[in-house]
UniProtKB/TrEMBL annotation:
Highest taxon of source: Bacteria
Region of interest (Disordered), ranges: 1-30
Protein name: Bax inhibitor-1/YccA family protein
Keywords, sorted A to Z: Membrane, Transmembrane, Transmembrane helix
One Pfam family linked to the record: BaxI_1
Family annotation (InterPro entries): BaxI_1-like (IPR010539)
Entry keyword annotation includes Ribonucleoprotein: no
Transmembrane segments: 69-88, 94-111, 118-138, 144-166, 178-200, 212-235, 247-264
Organism whose genome encodes this protein: Isoptericola chiayiensis
Record flagged with keyword Nucleotide-binding: no
Polar residues composition bias: residue spans: 1-10
Length: 277
């Protein structure tokens, strides 16, 4: 008995003719030969068309590409800059609302299994409001500091991308462990410092002041740069594994989060250094 999947298929099954009484009869000899020849010719033509057709690209298969990630990241960055500039000029005092909304939307997007372009866009807008207001505050205290922070952020991003692309820096288990331990330690330090400042135990920058503050700031910038390299590695693996194209939004969201963190750390580091002069 042949495989019923093939025998009952319109594609793989052989054509049958039923005579009176239900008997199956074969077609005339010449017609059978012509039908066989026609089927062979059709198969040959189909194979030829398959060989001559161009290979399917990731765009055709709706898989993640580097172009998708670049375009969506560039679009979100442009939106963030426009919103930040508008907030700086119109209402810098709204930065606190942007910070809270950005924190909430960041957590929501981080834990969603499927990316939401709307929520990611709203997160970017909230971060633009936050960065615009906080940047205006720093600029009034330290003239020219925002331009320096933006330039240094771009330089660190380019350096991290160059090192990763060249293969001189690779994401190994040791690299990942160091980054994880460093980020947890830095988070705990930051929380303790904030509590000490808010409760009045310490003043100004708290434990971030002076030489220690500069060292901690440099360490935070290194962590943010390492996080960028980790982001690049995630994106590379996603492209190589052929994940769906919709996850370009997740990749862009991850890069925006890290870039915002990097910019804030550089901005704070520059402020601490100028305060120490």
């Amino acid at each position: 008995m042949s495989n019923p999947v093939f025998s009952n298929s319109d594609v793989f099954g052989e054509p049958r003719r039923t005579a009176r009484g239900g008997a199956t009869t074969a077609p005339p000899r010449g017609q059978a030969q012509y039908g066989a020849y026609g089927a062979q010719a059709a198969d040959a033509a189909s194979l030829q068309n398959m060989y001559e057709s161009p290979s399917a690209t990731p765009v055709d298969t709706k898989r993640l590409t580097y172009t998708d990630v670049i375009m969506k990241t560039a679009g979100l960055l442009a939106l963030l800059v426009v919103v930040a500039a508008a907030t700086w000029v119109i209402a810098p005092g709204l930065w606190i609302f942007g910070m809270i909304a950005g924190l909430v939307l960041g957590l929501v997007n981080a834990f969603k299994k499927n990316p939401s372009p709307v929520l990611i866009t709203l997160y970017t807008i909230a971060q633009g409001v936050f960065l615009g207001g906080i940047s205006a505050f720093y600029e009034t205290q330290f003239n020219g500091i925002v331009g320096q922070a933006v330039l240094l952020t771009l330089c660190v991003f380019a350096a991290a991308l160059g090192l990763y692309s060249s293969g001189k820096v690779r994401v190994t288990p040791k690299f990942t462990r160091f980054l994880l331990i460093g980020m947890v330690g830095y988070l705990l330090f930051s929380l303790v410092n904030v509590v000490l400042v808010w409760t009045g135990v310490l003043e100004g920058w708290g434990m971030r002041g002076g030489t220690l503050g500069i060292v901690i700031g440099l360490f935070a910038v290194v962590l943010a740069a390492m996080s960028l390299i980790m982001d690049f590695d995630f994106i590379k693996r996603g492209v190589e594994q052929g994940v769906p194209a919709k996850f370009a939004w997740s990749a862009a969201f991850g890069l925006i989060v890290t870039l915002v963190w990097l910019y804030l750390e550089i901005l704070r580091l520059l402020a601490i250094m100028q305060s120490s002069d």
